[in-house]
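Objective 1.3, modelling of assemblies. Example input:
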Amino acid sequence: MISDKTIGRLSQYRRLIADLLVDDERFVFSHKLAEMAGGTAAQVRRDVMAIGYSGSPTKGYDLAGLAESIDNFLDAPEGTRAVLVGMGNLGRAITAYFTGRRPKLSIVAAFDNDSYRTGRVIHGCRCYPVEDIAKIVGDLDVRVGILTVPQRVAQPMADMLVQAGVSGILNFAPTRLRVPPRVYVEYIDMTTALEKVSYFGRNM
Amino acid sequence: MISDKTIGRLSQYRRLIADLLVDDERFVFSHKLAEMAGGTAAQVRRDVMAIGYSGSPTKGYDLAGLAESIDNFLDAPEGTRAVLVGMGNLGRAITAYFTGRRPKLSIVAAFDNDSYRTGRVIHGCRCYPVEDIAKIVGDLDVRVGILTVPQRVAQPMADMLVQAGVSGILNFAPTRLRVPPRVYVEYIDMTTALEKVSYFGRNM
DNA sequence: TGTTGTGAATCTCTTCACAGCT
DNA sequence: AGCTGTGAAGAGATTCACAACA
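Predicted structure (tokens):
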């Protein structure tokens, strides 16, 4: 099995590779990629090794080939559909942020329980009442849920998403979610992140 | 020196402790806190040990005392002031999100280079043109910058913040920042986070 | 010469396990 | 009896260092 951290770095590498391709580069050495990503050359080589790709000692890694390998490794061939729950300030901003960012990963619907928001199309994404989660997640074969709700409803909304069949949740609410082991949860805790900056900015 | 991860968990613990205090609890055992935080009891004890607090074998940790110890450890006594650069969708949402969330950590100003946004007060936060960064960061003794700008301007905006004297940056733009070693940078990469969910949702 | 791929060494973080305490 | 505090062991991740290669 491949580690969490390696997956994160691969995701990073492929964006850096896309930048290099825009600049008409063809090859890249591990030390160059490492420098761009803020890591070490050995780390890059390990990560590339993990997906079974290999480069040439003289030229480095072929950019197009490596990009394709990472894509094949990270993306579902048929793409992944996500829904977002909680169309408040943060939910709307994140919907806008992800729209059109990755071809194989799209937000296909949003949910809210405020009738002022439901029934409308916000940033190209239709907003439904939360009661429709089960139906829409089922109909569209949605695999990922994004939670941008207040923390007191994070668990119940997660339960609805899990019940509806998602296999992963990206949770922006500052709460640990209780989910069955088949469901993967990634946490983005902005408050903790800011507190870390505050702390280490002062203590370094 | 205390580790990055421990700081993150301490930030989490103190919110959990606040919840327990609301429920009129007085003490907590390491295994209870661990269960709430999604970790192990040994981990909690190590983290508490790191800040030099200690509990009682019979009652566990005194909630008020532990909360105070964590506060003293994490927070600057005089509080920390932050500014946010980039008042787009995400910047506005994050300004709203942080407003009033932590007493000792507040966003005191925002910046943008779009004249439609500058000069206005958004979510209780005045928005200035980016040219004013140096002056305002200096005048208000701002220590933390939050970057919610498009990636192509993330580095120049980081440079301005560093130049102005911040000691930490919370960067939402998907780019590695080049900063002097005295400046701490924390990255929140939402695209990578979502790609991890997509990957591990499928591969577990 | 300068790179990749990788076993081995190292470093870091987590968990075990138990003495000591109440 | 059941907890905390912590030395020691263990698990994981990173880096070293070098053979193999062009």
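The beta strands of chain B are 27-28, 61-62, 80-85, 105-112, 121-122, 125-129, 144-147, 168-171, 184-187.
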